Amino acid sequence: MARDYDGTEYPNAEPANSFAGIPDGFGRLWTPHRIAYIERGGAAPGDECVFCTAPGRSDEDALIVHRGAVSYALLNLFPYNSGHLLVVPYRHIATYDEATEEEVAEIGAITQTAMRVIRATSRADGFNIGMNQGAIAGAGIAGHLHQHLVPRWATDANFFPIIAETKALPRLLGEVRTEIAEAWPDVTR
Fold it and tell me: Which residue range or ranges hold the HIT domain (predicted)?
């Protein structure tokens, strides 16, 4: 019989210490909203690229916060922090060296504006910015170039990621998307 943290008994639940495999130091957090992504298993051969199909959907459905001439910005569906954006060229290219000068310039300009918007809307103290080029380098979607912009706060290092190795996200994606998208035109250089 499994028990919850508060002692509630679940007679039909399998206790975590009896799961197959080698026990590890990770806690588990129930996140049923991720099942759609997990069941897809990422991009399978013949699947359409999510970064190619997103611009054809509504901004709300695709979590797009800004559309530029050759690239756009959208929220990461599985963010490291609230406001975690991806800046993506419309063109399906895999690596940064394949980008045109116009794409490189616009990815940079969108990144700068996104930083200003996120500072204005959520008072971020800093940012992690990066690109994982290729599956071996950790790119979840290796076939389509995308840059991560992860807002950071002095207070975002609470006990969850440090001790429980779990990240708590305090805001819903739709709420964050609306806030960033609505603030985008109001931010000036």
Answer: 50-159
Please give the residue range of the domain that contains residue 178: 48-186
2 domain residue, yes or no? no
Please confirm, yes or no, whether 84 is among the known catalytic residues: no
Largest Cα separation within the chain, whole Å, is 61
For the chain, helix, strand, coil in percent to 5 are 40, 15, 45
Nearest CA among 116, 50, 38, 57 for reference residue 83: 116
Bigger pLDDT: 91 or 7? 91
Q: Is 84 annotated as a binding residue?
A: no
Residue 6 has pLDDT above 60, yes or no: no
CATH number at residue 104: 3.30.428.10
pTM (2 decimals)? 0.70
Asked if residue 124 belongs to a domain, the reply is yes
